[in-house]
Amino acid sequence: MNLRPLRLLLLVCLLAMPAAAQPLVLVTTSVLQDFVQQVGGDAVRVERLVPAGVRTPDFEPNADNLRRLEEAQCLVVNGAGFEPWLAECLRQANYEGPIIIATQGMALLDLEGRWHEASDETTADFGQGLFDPYAWHDPANAVRYVANINGGLASLVPARAGAFRIRADAYTKELQKLLTYTRAQFATLGAEPDHHLLATPLQNFNYFAAANGLKIVPIPGLASGQEIRPAVLERLLSGITQLHVPAVFFESTANAKMTKRIADETHTKVVTTLFTDDLGPAGTSTAFYLGMIRANVDTIVHALK
Known about the structure:
The protein has 305 residues and is of the alpha/beta class. Helices cover 45% and strands 12% of the residues.
């Protein structure tokens, strides 16, 4: 009996099979997308719900987003109030699938800078905005993110649990190397207090600062993204001069004329290259979490020396 036609037919059938074995996992941020891809590999299909260029807290879901959520087999969110629109989005999409809350089991800072022990009330705070959600800026917290994602994916695809664990363990080792690198870089700043001041209007770096012995110095009279009126700018210039800090840090979207004037008139270094809500552009090392954190570390340490 000639089995070749049967083998060819079987091959064609396998190639034509839908990618049902590859469940769709929706994530809310580019950081979570990287984590899920690192752990899930080719066993899952990872897509981002919030479009690139849109701040996750400001996202407004549309009908297409709701359809994608209806199709998803799993949803990965940051939690801790970072997705204030999530509860309503889930209701409208009638989504009843699993949700992996990446900050589950993690101690969190509130908006006053106080630590709170891990609880369901902190991490599952989808809308109240009581906590600082930017926990991923500390790589030690990223280890917890990866562990939570590993556990969630193992429940979603039990047959691949062993592969997920191997990938998660390997990636955790890379995160631990990043922690070692980060500590070594900040150790080069020495004990001079002025070299440990992070002057910024940004509210993204509280976990980063706490982990690396930095003190956040809020820029007076300025909220991130705020339009600058002449009187406000004058107060801002005066305030920065009085702070006696080695550098001030803004988002890359900060007004270029404003930051140039700050540098010129206060003789203070102005940094506008930090990554805050998202990873960097595709095709660069900062498009991945490890490269993004390393870039922020190098930028901050260089500016504070």
